Amino acid sequence: MATILRPQRRHFFSIPNILSSKKQYSERKLLSFSQNQLYTVVSNVDDYYQFIPFCNHSRVYTNTPMSNGTNVLEAELGVGFKLFQEKYMSKVTCQEPSLVQAVAADAKLFNDMTTTWKFTPNVPRSKLSMPSAADHPTCWVDFDISFDFASPLHAQASTVFFDQVSKMMLQAFVDRCHTVYKK
């Protein structure tokens, strides 16, 4: 049986699949703020537009307390840079004082977008369950963001600035803590 080789087609305007692949960024930092302080700043979605780079709108529409003590928010964020201006909805899960996770719910802009903040007091493991642990003056922050744009154009643009903007986002929250807590 003979193998038939077909010539590959190349389109002038085609964009390779690698441009729409999922992008991820993670960073762990020890900060001079308590778990409660960090949680308070990160969970205050309504204020994001005041300090996050490229965020021009932030609004919480619903805040639903769950039976396990978790709050689930529905929030809208507006982001923009030059010609790109977009708004999208997120489901934000807040587990005080240790976790804030936002998952984009708007399938038009993202195939997937998840931002996760974990806060762990910088105390020995034996003291983590103590009530005062959340007020310890230093805390580990684990920041993870991953996304996959639905649009190849957005995906291509993001390859240029993703790591830089991710670092800027984390730093914006640290700077906000300095402003709020006068440190």
TrEMBL record:
<comment type="similarity">
    <text>Belongs to the COQ10 family.</text>
</comment>
<dbReference type="GO" id="GO:0048039">
    <property type="term" value="F:ubiquinone binding"/>
</dbReference>
<dbReference type="InterPro" id="IPR044996">
    <property type="entry name" value="COQ10-like"/>
</dbReference>
<protein>
    <submittedName>
        <fullName>Coenzyme Q-binding protein COQ10 homolog A, mitochondrial-like</fullName>
    </submittedName>
</protein>
<feature type="domain" description="Coenzyme Q-binding protein COQ10 START">
    <location>
        <begin position="33"/>
        <end position="173"/>
    </location>
</feature>
<dbReference type="InterPro" id="IPR005031">
    <property type="entry name" value="COQ10_START"/>
</dbReference>
<dbReference type="GO" id="GO:0005739">
    <property type="term" value="C:mitochondrion"/>
</dbReference>
<comment type="subunit">
    <text>Interacts with coenzyme Q.</text>
</comment>
<dbReference type="InterPro" id="IPR023393">
    <property type="entry name" value="START-like_dom_sf"/>
</dbReference>
<dbReference type="GO" id="GO:0045333">
    <property type="term" value="P:cellular respiration"/>
</dbReference>
<comment type="function">
    <text>Required for the function of coenzyme Q in the respiratory chain. May serve as a chaperone or may be involved in the transport of Q6 from its site of synthesis to the catalytic sites of the respiratory complexes.</text>
</comment>
<dbReference type="Pfam" id="PF03364">
    <property type="entry name" value="Polyketide_cyc"/>
</dbReference>
